[in-house]
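Complex 191.
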Amino acid sequence: MTGRTHDLAAFTAITYLVATSTMPHMSLPTAFVAFSANMIGGLTPDIDQPTGALWHKMTLGTFLGKLVAPLFGGHRFISHSILGLVLFGVVSKLFLMLISGVLLVDMNVVWWAFMIGVVSHLVTDTFTHDGVPWLFPIPVRIGIPPIKAFRFHTGGIIEKGIVFPGFILLNLYLFYAYHQHILEFFKNNLK
Ligand SMILES: [Zn+2]
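Predicted structure with zinc ion bound:
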């Protein structure tokens, strides 16, 4: 999937949670950092390819991407698996602990937002033609639906014409159906 669709998928996951569940209390800076962490998480598994959207957003990213991406063993390899999810979880937790002295926000909320982004990436990639090696190092790529021909291609007409607009519609629906709950979240939490 393209970076744009992954961004939107991560955003949709957060919208869904804010709309339907009781969120922990958070300050405005925490919500802002968590939102950014969610977007970064949504792009993180693709750091295994030098063309990954996250690299493009960084200074010297193209150069760094060429250096770091091969360490993940190729595209849709360890970074697209449960093992990768655990590794990203541990590394990001350590990183957030390290910067918690200078960035005074609720790191627990930020960490969850990041992880929700990563999970949204893996789930949405599962619906694409190539599938996802969830059980790495077991070399099986899992996809939904199981028949490859019914899954869509990254950047193809289905992704651009159906999946992307579908996510936008889903967001609009959530904002419409749960606006009361969402407004309450903003009123009660973001101070
Ligand atoms: Zn991916």
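Residues 108 and 137 are 29 Å apart (CA to CA).
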